[in-house]
Amino acid sequence: MDLLLGCGGNRERKIQWDGRAVWHDLTTIDMNPAHKPDFVFDLTEGALPLADGVADEIHAYDVLEHLGQQGDWRIWFRQWSDYWRVLKPGGVFCGVSPAPHSPWAWGDPGHTRLITREAFVFLHQPSYAQVGVSPMTDYRFCYKADFDLVHSVYTDAGQHIFALQAVKPSRIASHAA
Hints:
This protein is mainly β. Helices cover 10% and strands 26% of the residues. It has a seven-stranded mixed sheet. The longest helix is centred in the middle third of the chain and has 14 residues, at 73-86.
């Protein structure tokens, strides 16, 4: 199953992964019932209405920058933990958001956070080896999921296009579990 978060009225697949140009058993989620999603659901309201390990891919195009507030680590880690929960082992989260240099990054009044490649370090359990050596904050007390950043590019058009692959089981260090 492929999952499209915040689908709006558009079902276009904007990112191809592993050469797949078409959706595989597409499931859609949007908070607006007028968009006719499979699930009417507000992404800020808690766990996705899906079982564990059901999605091959999750796609979110110009959605994540509307969720939570910059600096609200609780929502950030809750949401990414839930995406990890829904993905199959090796499943991929594909996203598009405004790049930090884009006038849309903070120009849209609905944007509340930047999605930067640097923030993805905190979703990658092996990166926590630098805790105590660098200024990196240790969030392993609340974040047990694990992703590898497999693609991240800032385009000249002002987009951040990225893909993260779910690593299951998580490589969280045993001392932090």
